[in-house]
Amino acid sequence: MKFFLFSIPILIGLAQGQFDPNYVPDRNVIVHLFQWKYTDIANECENFLGPNGFAGIQIDSPAENVIVTEAQYSGYPDRPWWERYQIVSYKLDQTRAGSYAELADMISRCNAAGVRIYADAVFNHMAGLGALMEGTAGSTGNSVIRSFPDVPYIITHFHIPCGINDYNDANQVRNCDLVGAPDLNQALSYVRGKIIDYLNSLIGLGVAGFRIDSAKHIWPQDLQAIASSLADLNTAHGFAPGSRPFIYQEVINVGPEAVSKYEYTDIGDVTEFLYSVSIGGVFKKFEGHHLSELANWGQPWGFLPSNRALVFVENHDNERGHGAGGDLILTYKDGKVYRMAVSFGLAHPYGVSRIMSSYDFTDTEVGPPMDANQDVISPSINPDGSCGNGWVCQHRWHQIYSMVRFKNVVKDAELSNWWSNGNNQIAFARSGRGFVAFNNEGSDMSVNLQTSLPAGTYCDVISGGKDGTSCTGKSVVVQDDGTADIVIGAAEDDGVLAIHIDEKL
Q1: With a threshold of 0.90, does the pTM exceed it?
Q2: Active-site residue among 64, 83, 120, 213?
Q3: Is 213 a catalytic residue?
Protein backbone atom coordinates (compact mmCIF):
# COMPACT_ATOMS: atom_id res chain seq x y z
CA MET A 1 0.00 0.00 0.00
CA LYS A 2 1.23 3.46 -0.88
CA PHE A 3 0.04 6.27 1.34
CA PHE A 4 1.30 9.54 -0.16
CA LEU A 5 0.96 9.10 -3.88
CA PHE A 6 -1.32 11.84 -5.08
CA SER A 7 -1.93 15.54 -5.00
CA ILE A 8 -5.28 17.30 -5.13
CA PRO A 9 -5.96 20.92 -6.09
CA ILE A 10 -6.50 23.14 -3.08
CA LEU A 11 -9.94 24.70 -3.03
CA ILE A 12 -9.83 27.20 -0.17
CA GLY A 13 -12.51 29.84 -0.45
CA LEU A 14 -13.40 32.95 1.47
CA ALA A 15 -16.58 31.71 3.13
CA GLN A 16 -17.19 32.30 6.80
CA GLY A 17 -15.24 29.38 8.18
CA GLN A 18 -14.75 28.85 11.88
CA PHE A 19 -11.07 28.04 12.28
CA ASP A 20 -10.01 29.63 15.60
CA PRO A 21 -9.87 27.03 18.39
CA ASN A 22 -10.30 29.80 20.95
CA TYR A 23 -7.38 28.64 23.07
CA VAL A 24 -6.22 30.48 26.13
CA PRO A 25 -2.92 32.17 25.12
CA ASP A 26 0.25 30.02 25.04
CA ARG A 27 -1.64 26.71 24.83
CA ASN A 28 -1.79 24.54 21.73
CA VAL A 29 -2.88 20.90 22.13
CA ILE A 30 -6.28 19.19 22.35
CA VAL A 31 -6.61 15.81 24.08
CA HIS A 32 -9.49 13.43 23.45
CA LEU A 33 -10.44 12.01 26.84
CA PHE A 34 -12.23 9.10 25.26
CA GLN A 35 -15.24 7.83 27.25
CA TRP A 36 -14.34 9.75 30.43
CA LYS A 37 -17.02 10.83 32.91
CA TYR A 38 -17.69 14.54 33.38
CA THR A 39 -16.66 14.54 37.05
CA ASP A 40 -13.33 12.93 36.16
CA ILE A 41 -12.75 15.39 33.32
CA ALA A 42 -13.37 18.35 35.63
CA ASN A 43 -10.91 17.01 38.17
CA GLU A 44 -8.34 16.32 35.45
CA CYS A 45 -8.63 19.89 34.17
CA GLU A 46 -7.86 21.30 37.59
CA ASN A 47 -5.28 18.77 38.74
CA PHE A 48 -3.31 17.98 35.59
CA LEU A 49 -4.38 19.41 32.23
CA GLY A 50 -4.52 23.05 33.29
CA PRO A 51 -1.23 23.03 35.23
CA ASN A 52 0.52 21.23 32.36
CA GLY A 53 -0.58 23.63 29.66
CA PHE A 54 -3.10 21.58 27.69
CA ALA A 55 -5.34 23.76 25.54
CA GLY A 56 -8.51 21.73 25.23
CA ILE A 57 -10.43 18.49 25.53
CA GLN A 58 -12.56 16.68 23.01
CA ILE A 59 -15.44 15.03 24.86
CA ASP A 60 -17.65 12.27 23.50
CA SER A 61 -21.14 12.96 22.24
CA PRO A 62 -23.18 14.40 25.14
CA ALA A 63 -26.54 13.55 23.52
CA GLU A 64 -28.82 10.78 24.76
CA ASN A 65 -27.92 7.44 23.19
CA VAL A 66 -29.14 3.87 22.96
CA ILE A 67 -28.16 1.61 25.85
CA VAL A 68 -26.62 -1.46 24.23
CA THR A 69 -26.40 -4.69 26.21
CA GLU A 70 -25.74 -8.22 25.05
CA ALA A 71 -29.10 -9.29 26.47
CA GLN A 72 -30.96 -6.76 24.31
CA TYR A 73 -28.81 -6.83 21.17
CA SER A 74 -27.42 -10.29 20.53
CA GLY A 75 -23.84 -10.39 19.30
CA TYR A 76 -22.73 -7.12 20.90
CA PRO A 77 -20.83 -6.67 24.18
CA ASP A 78 -22.40 -4.85 27.09
CA ARG A 79 -22.07 -1.07 26.67
CA PRO A 80 -19.72 -0.90 23.64
CA TRP A 81 -17.92 2.40 23.05
CA TRP A 82 -19.93 3.11 19.91
CA GLU A 83 -23.26 3.28 21.71
CA ARG A 84 -22.41 6.96 22.31
CA TYR A 85 -22.76 7.46 18.54
CA GLN A 86 -26.23 5.88 18.45
CA ILE A 87 -28.19 8.91 19.58
CA VAL A 88 -31.95 9.04 20.10
CA SER A 89 -32.44 12.65 21.22
CA TYR A 90 -30.53 15.84 21.96
CA LYS A 91 -31.07 15.61 25.72
CA LEU A 92 -27.90 16.30 27.70
CA ASP A 93 -28.60 14.25 30.83
CA GLN A 94 -28.88 10.71 29.53
CA THR A 95 -25.36 9.33 28.95
CA ARG A 96 -22.87 7.30 30.98
CA ALA A 97 -20.69 10.41 31.27
CA GLY A 98 -22.99 12.06 33.79
CA SER A 99 -25.88 14.41 34.38
CA TYR A 100 -26.66 17.79 32.86
CA ALA A 101 -25.47 19.47 36.06
CA GLU A 102 -22.19 17.53 35.94
CA LEU A 103 -21.69 18.46 32.28
CA ALA A 104 -22.27 22.15 33.01
CA ASP A 105 -20.00 22.04 36.05
CA MET A 106 -17.23 20.31 34.10
CA ILE A 107 -17.31 22.85 31.27
CA SER A 108 -17.23 25.75 33.73
CA ARG A 109 -14.37 24.30 35.79
CA CYS A 110 -12.29 23.40 32.74
CA ASN A 111 -12.69 26.88 31.25
CA ALA A 112 -11.61 28.34 34.59
CA ALA A 113 -8.51 26.13 34.43
CA GLY A 114 -7.68 27.43 30.94
CA VAL A 115 -8.80 24.24 29.18
CA ARG A 116 -11.42 24.54 26.42
CA ILE A 117 -14.09 21.92 25.68
CA TYR A 118 -14.99 20.64 22.21
CA ALA A 119 -18.04 18.39 22.03
CA ASP A 120 -18.32 15.52 19.57
CA ALA A 121 -21.51 16.38 17.69
CA VAL A 122 -23.49 13.57 16.02
CA PHE A 123 -26.19 14.84 13.68
CA ASN A 124 -25.63 13.12 10.37
CA HIS A 125 -27.91 10.34 11.59
CA MET A 126 -29.91 9.03 14.49
CA ALA A 127 -29.63 5.58 16.07
CA GLY A 128 -30.04 2.55 13.81
CA LEU A 129 -32.26 0.78 16.33
CA GLY A 130 -33.94 -1.55 13.86
CA ALA A 131 -30.62 -2.69 12.42
CA LEU A 132 -29.28 -3.38 15.90
CA MET A 133 -32.36 -5.35 16.87
CA GLU A 134 -31.83 -7.54 13.82
CA GLY A 135 -28.17 -7.98 14.76
CA THR A 136 -27.11 -6.67 11.33
CA ALA A 137 -25.57 -3.26 11.85
CA GLY A 138 -24.72 -2.94 8.17
CA SER A 139 -28.28 -3.42 6.96
CA THR A 140 -30.75 -0.74 6.10
CA GLY A 141 -34.38 -0.48 5.16
CA ASN A 142 -37.81 0.21 6.54
CA SER A 143 -37.09 -2.02 9.57
CA VAL A 144 -34.87 0.76 10.94
CA ILE A 145 -36.83 3.04 13.26
CA ARG A 146 -37.24 6.55 11.83
CA SER A 147 -39.26 8.14 14.60
CA PHE A 148 -37.55 9.93 17.49
CA PRO A 149 -40.28 11.61 19.56
CA ASP A 150 -37.94 13.30 22.00
CA VAL A 151 -36.55 15.61 19.30
CA PRO A 152 -39.08 15.13 17.60
CA TYR A 153 -38.14 13.64 14.22
CA ILE A 154 -40.50 11.59 12.06
CA ILE A 155 -39.90 9.61 8.89
CA THR A 156 -40.20 12.66 6.61
CA HIS A 157 -37.16 14.25 8.27
CA PHE A 158 -34.89 11.52 6.89
CA HIS A 159 -33.63 10.67 3.45
CA ILE A 160 -35.30 7.77 1.65
CA PRO A 161 -33.85 4.52 3.06
CA CYS A 162 -30.86 3.16 1.16
CA GLY A 163 -27.48 1.64 1.92
CA ILE A 164 -24.00 2.95 1.12
CA ASN A 165 -22.46 0.43 -1.25
CA ASP A 166 -20.31 2.68 -3.44
CA TYR A 167 -18.06 5.38 -2.01
CA ASN A 168 -17.48 6.69 -5.51
CA ASP A 169 -21.10 7.85 -5.54
CA ALA A 170 -21.39 11.11 -3.58
CA ASN A 171 -25.19 10.90 -3.49
CA GLN A 172 -25.03 7.51 -1.76
CA VAL A 173 -22.39 8.71 0.69
CA ARG A 174 -24.43 11.74 1.70
CA ASN A 175 -28.04 10.59 1.35
CA CYS A 176 -27.95 6.94 2.44
CA ASP A 177 -27.76 5.26 5.84
CA LEU A 178 -24.30 4.94 7.39
CA VAL A 179 -24.04 1.36 8.78
CA GLY A 180 -27.79 1.19 9.17
CA ALA A 181 -28.29 4.52 10.96
CA PRO A 182 -31.19 6.53 9.47
CA ASP A 183 -29.78 9.51 7.58
CA LEU A 184 -31.14 12.93 8.51
CA ASN A 185 -31.99 15.38 5.73
CA GLN A 186 -30.14 18.54 6.79
CA ALA A 187 -31.50 20.39 3.74
CA LEU A 188 -34.79 20.71 5.63
CA SER A 189 -35.04 23.92 7.66
CA TYR A 190 -36.80 22.05 10.48
CA VAL A 191 -33.94 19.57 10.82
CA ARG A 192 -31.36 22.34 10.68
CA GLY A 193 -33.25 24.22 13.37
CA LYS A 194 -33.23 21.26 15.74
CA ILE A 195 -29.49 20.72 15.20
CA ILE A 196 -28.72 24.41 15.69
CA ASP A 197 -30.78 24.51 18.89
CA TYR A 198 -28.88 21.47 20.20
CA LEU A 199 -25.45 22.92 19.44
CA ASN A 200 -26.44 26.32 20.81
CA SER A 201 -27.46 24.69 24.08
CA LEU A 202 -23.87 23.46 24.41
CA ILE A 203 -22.48 26.87 23.43
CA GLY A 204 -24.59 28.37 26.19
CA LEU A 205 -22.90 25.99 28.65
CA GLY A 206 -19.49 27.25 27.56
CA VAL A 207 -18.08 24.86 24.95
CA ALA A 208 -15.48 26.33 22.57
CA GLY A 209 -16.47 24.32 19.50
CA PHE A 210 -17.39 20.99 17.98
CA ARG A 211 -16.01 17.95 16.24
CA ILE A 212 -18.59 17.15 13.56
CA ASP A 213 -18.94 13.38 13.43
CA SER A 214 -19.47 11.82 9.96
CA ALA A 215 -19.21 15.22 8.25
CA LYS A 216 -18.27 13.41 5.04
CA HIS A 217 -21.84 12.10 4.96
CA ILE A 218 -23.42 15.58 5.13
CA TRP A 219 -23.67 17.87 2.11
CA PRO A 220 -21.16 20.75 2.59
CA GLN A 221 -23.74 23.44 1.85
CA ASP A 222 -26.00 22.07 4.60
CA LEU A 223 -23.14 21.88 7.08
CA GLN A 224 -22.10 25.42 6.21
CA ALA A 225 -25.66 26.65 6.78
CA ILE A 226 -25.71 25.03 10.22
CA ALA A 227 -22.26 26.22 11.28
CA SER A 228 -22.83 29.81 10.15
CA SER A 229 -26.12 29.98 12.09
CA LEU A 230 -24.63 29.04 15.45
CA ALA A 231 -24.50 31.51 18.32
CA ASP A 232 -21.30 33.26 19.33
CA LEU A 233 -19.41 31.75 22.25
CA ASN A 234 -20.51 32.56 25.79
CA THR A 235 -18.47 35.49 27.10
CA ALA A 236 -19.24 34.43 30.69
CA HIS A 237 -16.65 31.66 30.17
CA GLY A 238 -13.82 33.97 29.15
CA PHE A 239 -14.39 34.13 25.39
CA ALA A 240 -14.02 37.49 23.67
CA PRO A 241 -17.22 39.06 22.31
CA GLY A 242 -17.97 37.80 18.82
CA SER A 243 -15.91 34.61 19.17
CA ARG A 244 -17.17 31.86 16.91
CA PRO A 245 -17.26 28.15 17.81
CA PHE A 246 -14.32 26.20 16.43
CA ILE A 247 -15.46 23.62 13.87
CA TYR A 248 -13.47 20.55 12.90
CA GLN A 249 -15.03 17.94 10.69
CA GLU A 250 -14.53 14.19 10.41
CA VAL A 251 -13.81 13.53 6.74
CA ILE A 252 -11.94 10.31 6.00
CA ASN A 253 -10.26 10.87 2.63
CA VAL A 254 -6.88 9.23 2.09
CA GLY A 255 -7.27 8.43 -1.59
CA PRO A 256 -9.31 9.42 -4.64
CA GLU A 257 -13.05 9.00 -4.11
CA ALA A 258 -16.27 10.92 -4.68
CA VAL A 259 -16.18 13.00 -1.49
CA SER A 260 -13.07 15.13 -0.97
CA LYS A 261 -11.78 16.68 2.24
CA TYR A 262 -11.20 19.89 0.27
CA GLU A 263 -14.97 20.38 -0.07
CA TYR A 264 -15.17 21.14 3.66
CA THR A 265 -12.29 23.58 4.17
CA ASP A 266 -14.51 26.66 3.86
CA ILE A 267 -16.52 25.56 6.89
CA GLY A 268 -13.80 24.78 9.43
CA ASP A 269 -10.80 22.56 9.97
CA VAL A 270 -10.87 18.98 8.69
CA THR A 271 -9.50 15.82 10.30
CA GLU A 272 -6.46 14.84 8.19
CA PHE A 273 -6.56 11.04 8.23
CA LEU A 274 -3.77 10.81 5.64
CA TYR A 275 -1.45 12.29 8.32
CA SER A 276 -2.29 9.41 10.65
CA VAL A 277 -1.70 6.79 7.96
CA SER A 278 1.53 8.38 6.77
CA ILE A 279 3.20 9.00 10.13
CA GLY A 280 2.47 5.42 11.14
CA GLY A 281 3.93 4.10 7.91
CA VAL A 282 7.13 6.09 8.30
CA PHE A 283 7.80 5.32 11.97
CA LYS A 284 6.95 1.64 11.39
CA LYS A 285 9.40 1.69 8.43
CA PHE A 286 6.67 0.30 6.18
CA GLU A 287 8.07 -0.88 2.83
CA GLY A 288 11.46 0.63 3.63
CA HIS A 289 10.26 4.14 4.50
CA HIS A 290 12.48 6.12 6.83
CA LEU A 291 12.46 9.27 8.96
CA SER A 292 14.58 11.30 6.55
CA GLU A 293 11.51 11.46 4.26
CA LEU A 294 9.86 13.73 6.83
CA ALA A 295 11.94 16.71 5.65
CA ASN A 296 8.95 18.06 3.69
CA TRP A 297 6.29 16.86 6.14
CA GLY A 298 2.95 18.55 5.57
CA GLN A 299 1.09 19.65 2.48
CA PRO A 300 3.57 18.09 -0.04
CA TRP A 301 2.46 14.68 1.28
CA GLY A 302 -1.06 15.30 -0.01
CA PHE A 303 -2.19 16.77 3.29
CA LEU A 304 -4.51 19.73 3.72
CA PRO A 305 -2.92 23.15 4.21
CA SER A 306 -1.62 23.45 7.76
CA ASN A 307 -4.21 26.09 8.70
CA ARG A 308 -7.07 23.74 7.76
CA ALA A 309 -5.86 20.45 9.28
CA LEU A 310 -6.69 18.80 12.61
CA VAL A 311 -3.97 16.16 13.00
CA PHE A 312 -3.38 13.08 15.14
CA VAL A 313 -1.29 9.92 15.27
CA GLU A 314 -4.42 7.89 15.99
CA ASN A 315 -8.06 8.44 16.86
CA HIS A 316 -10.68 6.32 18.58
CA ASP A 317 -11.73 4.70 15.30
CA ASN A 318 -8.49 3.85 13.55
CA GLU A 319 -6.76 2.65 16.72
CA ARG A 320 -9.43 -0.06 16.64
CA GLY A 321 -8.90 -0.88 12.98
CA HIS A 322 -11.87 1.11 11.68
CA GLY A 323 -11.51 3.53 8.79
CA ALA A 324 -8.33 4.09 6.80
CA GLY A 325 -4.86 2.86 7.62
CA GLY A 326 -5.18 -0.69 8.93
CA ASP A 327 -1.91 -1.98 10.38
CA LEU A 328 -0.12 1.29 9.55
CA ILE A 329 -1.83 3.06 12.44
CA LEU A 330 0.27 3.48 15.58
CA THR A 331 -1.40 3.09 18.98
CA TYR A 332 -0.37 3.06 22.63
CA LYS A 333 0.34 -0.67 22.18
CA ASP A 334 3.34 0.21 19.96
CA GLY A 335 5.25 1.64 22.91
CA LYS A 336 8.51 3.39 22.02
CA VAL A 337 7.81 4.01 18.35
CA TYR A 338 4.34 5.37 19.22
CA ARG A 339 5.83 7.84 21.69
CA MET A 340 8.33 8.91 19.03
CA ALA A 341 5.60 9.60 16.48
CA VAL A 342 3.49 11.58 18.96
CA SER A 343 6.59 13.57 19.95
CA PHE A 344 7.36 14.31 16.31
CA GLY A 345 3.82 15.56 15.73
CA LEU A 346 4.01 17.86 18.75
CA ALA A 347 7.45 19.18 17.79
CA HIS A 348 6.49 19.90 14.17
CA PRO A 349 4.47 23.05 13.35
CA TYR A 350 2.02 21.40 10.93
CA GLY A 351 -1.68 21.47 11.79
CA VAL A 352 -3.77 21.71 14.94
CA SER A 353 -2.60 18.89 17.23
CA ARG A 354 -4.92 16.46 18.99
CA ILE A 355 -3.67 13.52 21.05
CA MET A 356 -5.55 10.42 22.15
CA SER A 357 -6.06 9.33 25.75
CA SER A 358 -8.05 6.20 26.32
CA TYR A 359 -8.38 2.87 28.11
CA ASP A 360 -6.76 -0.51 27.53
CA PHE A 361 -8.58 -2.89 25.19
CA THR A 362 -8.19 -6.16 23.33
CA ASP A 363 -11.77 -6.41 22.05
CA THR A 364 -12.12 -3.48 19.64
CA GLU A 365 -15.81 -3.01 20.49
CA VAL A 366 -15.59 -3.03 24.27
CA GLY A 367 -16.42 0.14 26.17
CA PRO A 368 -14.54 1.77 29.05
CA PRO A 369 -13.84 -0.02 32.33
CA MET A 370 -17.10 -0.57 34.20
CA ASP A 371 -18.38 -2.14 37.40
CA ALA A 372 -21.07 -4.78 37.92
CA ASN A 373 -23.75 -2.10 37.50
CA GLN A 374 -22.28 -1.09 34.12
CA ASP A 375 -21.20 2.26 35.55
CA VAL A 376 -17.91 3.65 34.21
CA ILE A 377 -15.03 3.19 36.64
CA SER A 378 -12.94 6.34 37.20
CA PRO A 379 -9.22 6.30 36.39
CA SER A 380 -7.07 5.88 39.46
CA ILE A 381 -3.85 7.88 39.71
CA ASN A 382 -0.69 5.97 40.58
CA PRO A 383 2.16 7.48 42.65
CA ASP A 384 4.13 8.18 39.46
CA GLY A 385 1.20 10.10 37.95
CA SER A 386 0.14 7.38 35.52
CA CYS A 387 -3.37 5.90 35.49
CA GLY A 388 -4.79 2.63 36.75
CA ASN A 389 -8.17 0.88 36.79
CA GLY A 390 -7.74 -0.11 33.15
CA TRP A 391 -7.07 3.41 31.84
CA VAL A 392 -4.03 4.12 29.65
CA CYS A 393 -4.05 7.96 29.95
CA GLN A 394 -1.41 8.68 27.30
CA HIS A 395 -1.65 12.38 28.14
CA ARG A 396 -0.11 11.60 31.54
CA TRP A 397 2.95 9.90 30.05
CA HIS A 398 5.96 12.08 30.86
CA GLN A 399 7.21 12.04 27.27
CA ILE A 400 3.87 13.27 25.92
CA TYR A 401 2.94 16.00 28.39
CA SER A 402 6.53 17.26 28.22
CA MET A 403 6.17 17.63 24.45
CA VAL A 404 2.88 19.48 24.97
CA ARG A 405 4.91 21.99 27.00
CA PHE A 406 7.56 22.01 24.26
CA LYS A 407 4.90 22.97 21.73
CA ASN A 408 3.64 25.74 23.99
CA VAL A 409 7.17 27.14 24.41
CA VAL A 410 8.23 27.09 20.75
CA LYS A 411 4.91 28.71 19.70
CA ASP A 412 5.06 29.64 16.01
CA ALA A 413 8.87 29.62 15.70
CA GLU A 414 10.07 28.61 12.25
CA LEU A 415 11.23 25.07 11.61
CA SER A 416 14.95 25.32 10.84
CA ASN A 417 18.26 23.44 10.86
CA TRP A 418 16.82 20.20 9.50
CA TRP A 419 19.33 17.35 9.63
CA SER A 420 19.20 13.65 8.80
CA ASN A 421 21.66 10.83 8.26
CA GLY A 422 19.69 9.87 5.16
CA ASN A 423 17.94 7.10 7.01
CA ASN A 424 16.26 6.93 10.46
CA GLN A 425 18.07 9.61 12.44
CA ILE A 426 16.74 13.16 12.14
CA ALA A 427 16.79 16.45 14.01
CA PHE A 428 15.42 19.96 13.61
CA ALA A 429 15.10 23.22 15.47
CA ARG A 430 12.18 25.52 16.16
CA SER A 431 14.33 28.53 15.51
CA GLY A 432 15.76 30.07 18.68
CA ARG A 433 13.26 28.34 20.98
CA GLY A 434 13.60 24.56 20.80
CA PHE A 435 15.41 21.59 19.30
CA VAL A 436 14.46 17.93 18.90
CA ALA A 437 16.21 14.79 17.62
CA PHE A 438 15.00 11.26 16.81
CA ASN A 439 16.81 7.94 16.53
CA ASN A 440 14.73 5.14 14.99
CA GLU A 441 17.68 2.97 13.98
CA GLY A 442 19.27 -0.04 15.59
CA SER A 443 22.51 1.84 16.22
CA ASP A 444 23.47 4.73 18.50
CA MET A 445 23.13 8.34 17.39
CA SER A 446 26.05 10.59 18.27
CA VAL A 447 26.47 13.75 16.21
CA ASN A 448 27.27 17.44 16.61
CA LEU A 449 24.34 19.55 15.37
CA GLN A 450 23.21 23.15 15.15
CA THR A 451 20.41 23.70 17.68
CA SER A 452 19.75 27.44 17.01
CA LEU A 453 19.62 27.94 20.81
CA PRO A 454 21.61 30.34 22.99
CA ALA A 455 24.69 28.92 24.70
CA GLY A 456 24.13 27.08 27.96
CA THR A 457 23.17 23.78 29.54
CA TYR A 458 19.67 22.45 28.77
CA CYS A 459 17.67 19.60 30.31
CA ASP A 460 16.22 16.99 27.98
CA VAL A 461 12.46 16.94 28.62
CA ILE A 462 12.01 13.36 27.41
CA SER A 463 14.32 11.64 29.90
CA GLY A 464 13.61 14.09 32.72
CA GLY A 465 13.57 17.85 33.12
CA LYS A 466 14.87 20.80 35.09
CA ASP A 467 14.87 20.56 38.89
CA GLY A 468 16.30 23.75 40.34
CA THR A 469 19.88 23.99 39.11
CA SER A 470 20.20 20.44 37.79
CA CYS A 471 18.62 18.01 35.33
CA THR A 472 16.80 14.87 36.40
CA GLY A 473 17.59 13.22 33.07
CA LYS A 474 20.02 13.90 30.24
CA SER A 475 21.60 17.31 29.74
CA VAL A 476 22.78 19.00 26.56
CA VAL A 477 25.52 21.65 26.45
CA VAL A 478 25.00 24.20 23.67
CA GLN A 479 28.18 26.01 22.62
CA ASP A 480 28.54 29.70 21.77
CA ASP A 481 27.96 28.93 18.08
CA GLY A 482 24.67 27.11 18.83
CA THR A 483 26.02 23.60 18.24
CA ALA A 484 25.76 20.68 20.66
CA ASP A 485 26.65 17.02 20.85
CA ILE A 486 23.44 15.05 20.50
CA VAL A 487 23.46 11.47 21.77
CA ILE A 488 20.55 8.98 21.67
CA GLY A 489 21.46 5.38 22.33
CA ALA A 490 19.65 2.67 20.39
CA ALA A 491 18.86 0.85 23.62
CA GLU A 492 17.39 3.87 25.44
CA ASP A 493 13.76 3.73 26.50
CA ASP A 494 12.95 6.61 24.17
CA GLY A 495 14.33 7.45 20.77
CA VAL A 496 13.78 11.18 21.26
CA LEU A 497 15.71 14.08 22.78
CA ALA A 498 14.07 17.48 23.15
CA ILE A 499 15.27 20.76 24.67
CA HIS A 500 13.79 24.24 24.78
CA ILE A 501 14.54 27.65 26.23
CA ASP A 502 12.46 27.11 29.37
CA GLU A 503 14.64 24.12 30.30
CA LYS A 504 17.92 26.07 30.29
CA LEU A 505 19.78 25.91 33.60
Answers
A1: yes
A2: 213
A3: yes
